[in-house]
Amino acid sequence: MDLSPQVTLAVLGAALLHAGWNALFKSSPDKALENVALAVSRGALALACVPWLPLPAPASWPWLAASVVVHVAYFWALAGAYRWGDLSFAYPVMRGGAPVLVALASIAVFGEALSWAQGAAVAFICGGILAFASGPRGDVRAGRRALLFAVGNAAVIATYTLIDARGVRVSGAAVSYALWFFIANSVVQIALGAARRGAEIPAYLRRHWLRAAVGGALTLGSYGIALWAMTRAPVALVAAVRETSVIFAAALGALFLGERITLRRAGATTAVLAGLLALRL
Question: Which of 62, 242, 72, 241 is nearest to 168 (CA)?
Answer without folding.
Answer: 62
